[in-house]
Amino acid sequence: EVQLVESGGGLIQPGGSLRLSCAASGFIVSSNCMSWVRQAPGEGLEWVSVIYSGGTTYYADSVKGRFTISRDHSKNTLYLQMNSLRAEDTAVYYCARGVSASYYGMDVWGQGTTVTVSS
Amino acid sequence: DIQMTQSPSSLSASVGDRVTITCRASQSISTYLNWYQQKPGKAPKLLIYAASSLQSGVPSRFSGSGSGTDFTLTISSLQPEDFATYYCQETNSTPWAFGQGTKVEIK
Question: What per-residue confidence (pLDDT) applies to A114?
Answer without folding.
Answer: 98
